[in-house]
């Protein structure tokens, strides 16, 4: 595993001067992920906050080769890049015979869980040697905070607004990490930038594997979550400590490992409370919703522990 | 060294793709293109070719992957039809705007709905304004030849635009023809190696492809695409001139069939041009002065050359194998009338929309169509600007 010093020397692949909001999780995640990559990187990025903030022509924040194609096809695009690499290497073109690369795609939850899901699933099934990173901020932030299938239950978004009759999003979030594990690909993980050692280790592991890998990373969005800019990583940590966002990895579809077990699993209120998007849940008439969410979280955590063999 | 063999259009296309030996092919099956994918994958499975063949889960991903591959520095190809092309539509534009020299075989088929697997040009017309060069062939030979030339056109430094090689579904794709095949080594020499100036896998020079391009630059970039299209005309001709040395087969923007002394003429693209030639042969024997302009290059539209070729004609019947629903005729008709508008000559035009969804078009039909053009010439009156020929009213 790379030391902090090593990581910091490799941190320049995504430069400052991008126009992500202050406190945005996406930039922090990209820097950590790219720092963990040892080879030259080719990045494919889905349309979304990360892409539109980092590549406003004629500028670019990327010191790696970068391609943005459309919203839903980062996985297919990086598949094409990786296929080209294999072909050109075999054909001894451009001096690629001894040149290794890391192929990494980034997509927001909208571009990954929803519209880009087919392309992602296809790329994973085909077995390209690529790493797909979803930065999951739980909504379509770039178009103004609309709900996605990753939006947590109860969240107030612009298309699942908390109103007089409907208290925000009524469905639980899709657990995409599990769905990706069901592809039986070599490596799937869930991580967060607050736990940088865990995240960078997972990226290193994913990139060392000869096949496809997927890491789902929780990404704070101060604007969409209605949280203070400077509190992002602290709030991210409560996601982990409440088990809203467990840190785990799955190898070859079946081999689950829990990477972090909170000593005292904190109540879900502690994750919900600091975020403006959940404010309405704390009205007395919505108490049952918080209970419902807590129950869901508990069930899921238990299921993960069971899969990881931590309980029978 | 050339040899003649009997092949269907799809077999010819798969064969030429094998001979071109692209670095990457990504494709998804759809009738009537499916065979191309099947035959090509057999070549790969038998180790006859070492192209990286990416079996994507949709046409959207086929075009997306080909864009990734081409941007990475690979020579990349795909093939599709109808709804497959429609599903690619979003990314088809992106391929052109990224100036990626992708070559795609389009086996023309009617767009749904209603669902229909047979030939018309509605799929090709759907990508009309996407910034791709679009070539049409009359038969399998031309589809084969166009594919070879397409690689050179697309990759030419002045152009750097993707090229669609159209052939009519079933009529060409599934009919067996004797075609002349260029020898492998000649294909290799003709297409040469693809050496892009900039590519993602250039470790020394990382690049950003597909950035956000707002009010301050988008317009300029579109303008540059137009310039590339304009330059493509020279390049298309130059490569056709080289091609004639290789094969003896002469190509230009269009073929003029008995146009010199014609009074009336048809304009057509694709397989119907062959049928039209047969009809014209018969009518010429009866002394009717009719000719044909068979359009090969639909984008860029060779307007000046068309005006020159048709300026002496009295009435032209433009044959469209697609509707545009503007209620003033098909897409080719709009372009044709627009091109002729500023011409010196007073060429009159009518539009014949035919063959939608694979409705058969025979020599007799074409003779009937020519009669309608002739009627306008005789009476001087256009009774119907747009005729939906062969439809039950
Ligand atoms: C085909 C298509 N549909 C819709 C859009 C509009 N759009 C652009 S970005 C975006 C939301 C992105 O959300 P997400 O993937 O979650 O990333 P985030 O902005 O949150 O970082 C949408 C809906 C688009 N660009 N393309
Ligand atoms: S809106 Fe949210 S996701 Fe988008 S840049 Fe701002 S903080 Fe980041």
TrEMBL record, chain A:
Transmembrane segments: none annotated. Keywords: Oxidoreductase, Pyruvate. Residues 47-217 form the Thiamine pyrophosphate enzyme TPP-binding domain. It comes from the Bacteria. InterPro entries: PorB-like (IPR051479), THDP-binding (IPR029061), TPP_enzyme_TPP-bd (IPR011766). One of its GO terms (molecular function) is thiamine pyrophosphate binding. PANTHER family: PYRUVATE SYNTHASE SUBUNIT PORB. This is Pyruvate ferredoxin oxidoreductase. It comes from Anoxybacter fermentans. The lineage of its organism: Bacteria, Bacillati, Bacillota, Clostridia, Halanaerobiales.
From TrEMBL, chain B:
InterPro entries: PFOR_II, Pyruvate:ferred/Flavod_OxRd, Pyrv_Fd/Flavodoxin_OxRdtase_N, THDP-binding, Transketo_C/PFOR_II. One of its GO terms (biological process) is carboxylic acid metabolic process. GO terms for molecular function: oxidoreductase activity, acting on the aldehyde or oxo group of donors. Residues 262-366 form the Pyruvate:ferredoxin oxidoreductase core domain. Keywords: Oxidoreductase, Pyruvate. Residues 16-240 form the Pyruvate flavodoxin/ferredoxin oxidoreductase pyrimidine binding domain. It comes from the Bacteria. This is Pyruvate ferredoxin oxidoreductase.
């Amino acid at each position: 595993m790379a030391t902090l010093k090593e990581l910091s020397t490799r941190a320049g692949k995504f430069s400052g001067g991008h126009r992500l909001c202050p406190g945005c999780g996406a930039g922090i995640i990209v820097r950590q992920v790219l720092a963990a990559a040892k080879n030259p990187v080719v990045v494919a990025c889905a349309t979304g906050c990360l892409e539109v903030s980092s590549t406003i022509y004629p500028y670019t924040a990327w010191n790696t080769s970068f391609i943005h194609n459309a919203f839903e096809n980062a996985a297919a695009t990086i598949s094409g890049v990786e296929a080209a690499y294999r072909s050109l290497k075999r054909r001894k073109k451009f001096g690629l015979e001894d040149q290794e690369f890391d192929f990494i795609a980034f997509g927001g939850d909208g571009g990954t869980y929803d519209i880009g899901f087919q392309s992602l699933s296809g790329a994973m099934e085909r077995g390209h040697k690529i790493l797909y990173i979803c930065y999951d901020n739980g909504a379509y932030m770039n178009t103004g905070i609309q709900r996605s299938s990753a939006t947590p239950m109860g969240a107030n978004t612009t298309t699942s607004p908390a109103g007089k009759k409907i208290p925000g999003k009524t469905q639980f979030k899709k657990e995409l990490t599990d769905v990706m594990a069901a592809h039986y690909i070599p490596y799937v993980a869930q991580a967060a930038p607050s736990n940088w050692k865990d995240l960078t280790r997972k990226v290193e592991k994913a990139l060392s594997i000869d096949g496809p890998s997927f890491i789902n990373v929780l990404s704070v969005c101060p604007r969409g979550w209605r949280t203070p800019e400077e509190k992002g990583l602290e709030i991210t940590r409560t996601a982990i400590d409440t088990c809203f966002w467990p840190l785990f990895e799955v190898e070859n579809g079946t081999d689950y490992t829990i990477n972090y077990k909170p000593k005292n699993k904190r109540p879900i209120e502690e994750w919900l409370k600091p975020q403006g998007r959940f404010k309405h849940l704390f009205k007395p008439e919505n108490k049952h919703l918080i209970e419902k969410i807590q129950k869901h979280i508990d069930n899921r955590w238990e299921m993960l522990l069971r899969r990881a063999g931590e309980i029978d | 060294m050339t040899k003649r063999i009997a092949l269907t259009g799809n077999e010819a296309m798969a064969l030429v793709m094998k001979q071109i030996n692209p670095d990457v092919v990504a494709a998804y099956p759809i009738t009537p293109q499916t065979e191309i994918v099947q035959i090509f994958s057999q070549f790969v499975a038998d180790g006859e070719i070492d192209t990286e063949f990416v079996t994507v889960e949709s046409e959207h991903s086929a075009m997306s992957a080909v864009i990734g591959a081409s941007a990475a520095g690979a020579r990349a190809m795909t093939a599709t039809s109808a709804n497959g092309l429609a599903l690619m539509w979003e990314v088809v534009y992106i391929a052109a705007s990224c100036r990626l020299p992708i070559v795609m075989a389009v086996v023309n088929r009617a767009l749904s709905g209603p669902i229909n697997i047979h030939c018309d040009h509605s799929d090709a017309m759907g990508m009309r304004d996407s910034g791709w060069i679009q070539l049409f062939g009359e038969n399998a030979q031309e589809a084969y030849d166009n594919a070879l030339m397409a690689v050179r056109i697309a990759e030419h430094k002045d152009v750097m635009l993707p090229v669609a090689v159209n052939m009519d579904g079933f009529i060409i794709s599934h009919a067996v023809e004797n075609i002349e095949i260029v020898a492998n080594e000649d294909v290799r020499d003709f297409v040469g190696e693809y050496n892009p100036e900039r590519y993602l896998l250039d470790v020394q020079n990382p690049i950003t492809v597909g950035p956000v391009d707002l009010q301050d630059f988008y317009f300029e970039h579109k303008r540059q695409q137009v310039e590339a299209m304009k330059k493509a005309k020279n390049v298309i001709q130059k490569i056709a001139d080289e091609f004639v040395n290789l094969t003896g087969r002469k190509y230009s923007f269009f073929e003029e069939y008995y146009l010199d002394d014609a009074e009336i003429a048809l304009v057509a693209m694709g397989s119907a041009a062959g049928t039209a030639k047969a009809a014209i042969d018969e009518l010429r024997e009866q002394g009717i002065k009719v000719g044909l302009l068979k359009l090969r290059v639909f984008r860029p539209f060779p307007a000046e050359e068309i005006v020159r070729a048709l300026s002496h004609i009295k009435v032209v019947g433009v044959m469209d194998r697609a509707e545009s629903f503007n209620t003033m005729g098909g897409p080719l008709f709009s372009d044709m009338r627009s091109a002729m508008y500023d011409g010196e000559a007073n060429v009159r035009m009518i539009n014949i929309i035919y063959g939608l969804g694979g409705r058969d078009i025979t020599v007799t039909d074409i003779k009937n169509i020519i009669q309608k053009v002739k009627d306008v010439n005789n009476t001087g009156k256009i009774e119907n600007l747009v005729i939906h020929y062969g439809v039950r009213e």
